[in-house]
């Protein structure tokens, strides 16, 4: 399915219904699944997503679709907020778009409520070899709450232009067919 390019269309708030159209698994959290404490439903996620879109002045369907599609893809439909795969996961990687540690660290430094704690834990250089895995995880944990965890993708998207750059720079991966399919479906649903 090819989604034609159109001038930016501003969209209204994302609804739980839209999220479940894009990712049906967001209807519920399976209590027997792994990482149930990390799982969020569409109903739980939508208010945090909409607040972050407002806070970061993200209004067009294309921007929202780019960010949402990465969030849904990276977390298996909001089923987790930390890197678990391959086990035990990459130290310090997390939030609702699974940013790698250098970006988690910068996000924690850029966020007023976590700045001083992130600075005390890891200083200003995320690539300092003396930063331990436990320290990376502690910095990540500063931004895992729902408000900051869901807003991390908007922060990253607002500081890195373009969907492909966003994926390459914040998630350290490339555009694949399955990733593009989620983005295309998200654009389609949000354009309705």
Automatic annotation (TrEMBL):
In Swiss-Prot or TrEMBL terms, this protein is called: Uncharacterized protein
